[in-house]
Amino acid sequence: MKYFLSALIAVGLSIAAAPSYAADARNVTVVNETGYAIKFLGFNAPDDGMDEWDNELDKVLQNQASTYVEFDDDDEGCVWNVRVDWQNYVETVLWKNVNLCKFTALRLRYDSGTKTTSFVAE
């Protein structure tokens, strides 16, 4: 029993001493609640210009599906532009200067009455 208790204390101390790696404050879950499939989801820094985008999706993001976007240490700042391209339409949606550090999820929505796409930040 004495050895078991010593081992348990040692394990507890090693876990407490291990460095913790918190998620980047900009990482965000994007939930597609638009009713349409999304073929492109991109983020770029406001200083990068509108021609520099990387698609964060490995496959089409279907309606009611979500994807988790992780930022690299090389990426800087909280404020990003967000671009969405639809699978079967030529329209692009662009939101400029979105502060990703203020929330962990973006719920994309489409209003057919006004024909506008918006997001709800959580």
Task: Offer a concise description of the structure.
The chain is mainly beta. It is built from one helix and seven strands; from the N terminus they run H-E-E-E-E-E-E-E. It has one helix at 2-17; strands at 28-33, 38-44, 66-69, 79-86, 92-99, 105-111, 116-121.
The topology string of helices and strands comes to HEEEEEEE
Indicate the radius of gyration in whole angstroms: 20 Å
Please state how the strands of the largest beta sheet are arranged side by side: 3-1-6-7
Quickly give the structural class.
mainly beta
- Indicate the mean pLDDT: 85
Tell the overall outline.
globular
Please report the total strand number as a whole number: 7
The quaternary state of the protein chains shown equals: single chain
Span between termini: 48 Å
Q: What are the segments in which pLDDT stays under 50 over at least 5 consecutive residues? A: 1-21
Query: Counting H and I runs of at least 4 residues, what is the number of helices?
Result: 1
Largest sheet: 4 strands, mixed
Percentage of residues assigned to helices? 10-25%
The percentage of residues in β strands lies in: 35-45%
Keywords: Signal
Signal peptide: 1-22
Organism: Bradyrhizobium canariense
Protein name: Argininosuccinate lyase
